[in-house]
Design a protein that fits this description.
This protein is of the alpha/beta class. The chain has 11 helices and 12 strands. It has helices spanning 2-15, 21-36, 40-55, 71-98, 104-118, 145-161, 197-200, 206-222, 243-252, 301-311, 374-389, and strands spanning 188-190, 227-229, 235-238, 257-265, 270-278, 281-286, 326-329, 332-338, 359-365, 392-398, 403-406, 409-411. The strands form 2 sheets. Strands 1, 2, 3, 4, 5 and 6 form a 6-stranded mixed β-sheet that branches. Strands 7-8-9-10-11-12 form a 6-stranded mixed β-sheet, covered by helices on one side. Strand 9, helix 11 (374-389) and strand 10 (392-398) form a beta-alpha-beta unit. The model has no long low-confidence stretch (mean pLDDT 92).
Length: 415
């Protein structure tokens, strides 16, 4: 339990705005030290409760489906999934090291370290938010794999030799803080909305909600902005089938570029999409990576159909786009991302010219999980990718504050 608390503390410290690099560094190192020096049973308990502290909010979405009885079941599945993964790493390390009695202690530590190093590549049900190195996103240590490997190596030697002198090797994983001022783009307006899930899908409230959105766009125009970014599904309908809304957005796009979330219907399957209005053109960029169980069911078809029928009134899964989409506004190229997919490695893949995305526009709806620590963990993951790949991220959100991230640092862009 102590190890689980230590390895999860950085999320809650950030949530309560008490995150400090020195404290986060100490807590993360202590968590790794205690975990590497523990047995299989402790690894199982650590994995289970770490998953609980990181991901308990997943079950909160069931409230909106009136499936309260499923909350403890979902939490139990999450805890068991990671508990078993952790236990398998420890068990395998123990079994393999037993084959070499002379070096058993060292080999066990090495295999455990390798297991921790590869944990971020293991995605239960295709959910990839667990990255142990994320503990150091707000610390004095780097979050690159090679830096995390150095940290684990220093811990391995320290425990094996029972001497804290070896801990000094973590200096090679040191990541100096950059204090250069962020270059905020004053021409971009990131809209924050506060529409609950219940209100969002209430069609009788749509006229009022849409009118407020249009007022905010007008305000962006009046204040001299050149681009306004709206959250995910701010128009919770098939926007391509709503000509009146399209006409209104096109008219406003004569004065400002607009990036907004909306649904798309191709006549067969629904898509979660971004609509880009700029230079008299409309571009639709569909989501590439769908949320497991939220937008698609990762289980085999026979189970997927049954679950959709029981829990989602027979609704069909969303359809994903086959490749990431880049679009250009005012000469600047942006990578398209919608909520969950922005926290996945695939969205930061190289383009045809071999370049990582320099800029990314992310649209999110955090209403399914608020109030919780989900928006905090999401922000930490975006900081992780921004720092890792140098991508500047513009994030417009429903039900939590919008912000810009540059070189792993967050800058609030006020509405």
């Amino acid at each position: 339990m102590l190890i689980s608390l230590l390895s999860s503390a950085f999320i809650y410290l950030e949530f309560y705005d008490y995150s400090y690099p020195l404290f986060n560094t100490f807590l993360g190192l202590l968590a790794l030290y205690l975990l590497l020096d523990s047995n299989t049973k402790t690894w199982f308990i650590t994995g289970a409760f770490t998953a609980l502290f990181w991901f308990w909010w997943i079950a909160r979405s069931l409230v909106h489906y009136e499936l309260l009885y499923g909350v403890p079941l979902v939490i139990l599945i999450i805890m068991l999934s990671y508990g078993l993964i952790f236990a398998f790493i420890a068990w395998l390390s123990h079994k393999v090291s037993k084959l070499f009695p002379k070096n058993e202690a060292l080999l066990s530590l090495i295999f455990k370290s390798l297991g921790i190093l590869t944990l971020s590549t293991i995605h239960p049900f295709s959910f990839d938010w667990f990255k142990p190195e994320l503990m150091f996103i707000e610390s004095y240590l780097g979050i690159e794999k090679w830096q995390f490997a150095i940290t684990l190596s220093a811990m391995t030697l320290t425990i094996w030799r029972r001497h804290f002198l070896y801990l000094s090797f973590i200096m090679f994983a040191y990541q100096p803080s950059t204090y250069a001022p962020l270059k905020t783009d004053g021409d971009i307006a990131l809209m924050t909305t506060s529409t609950s899930v219940k209100e969002k899908w209430n069609e009788t409230l749509h006229p009022e909600q849409f009118q407020e959105v249009f007022k905010r766009i007008d305000h962006a125009i009046d204040t001299g902005k050149t681009l306004v970014v709206l959250p995910e599904s701010v128009f919770p309908l098939f926007l391509n089938r709503s000509q009146k809304l399209i006409d209104t957005l096109e008219e406003k796009a004569k004065h400002i570029s607009i990036v907004t979330g909306g649904l798309y219907w191709d006549g067969k399957t629904p898509r979660n999409s971004t609509y880009i209005f700029t230079n008299g053109k409309i571009t639709v960029a569909n989501k590439v990576i769908l949320v497991p169980f939220g937008e698609r069911n990762p289980l085999p078809d026979f189970l997927s159909d049954w679950i959709n029928q029981i829990f989602y009134d027979g609704a069909v899964d969303y359809k994903a786009s086959s490749s990431v989409v880049d679009y250009v506004i005012d000469g600047k190229t942006y990578r398209n991302a919608i909520c969950f997919e922005a926290t996945s490695e695939q969205l930061y893949s190289k383009d045809r010219e071999g370049k990582r995305p320099e800029n990314m526009i992310v649209l999110s709806n955090n209403g399914w999980f608020t109030p919780s620590t989900e928006p905090t963990l999401q922000k930490l993951l975006l900081k992780y990718y921004s720092k890792k790949y140098g991508t500047t991220i513009y994030h417009a959100i429903n039900m939590s504050d919008s912000y810009m991230i540059q070189k792993g640092k967050v800058s609030d862009i006020k509405p």
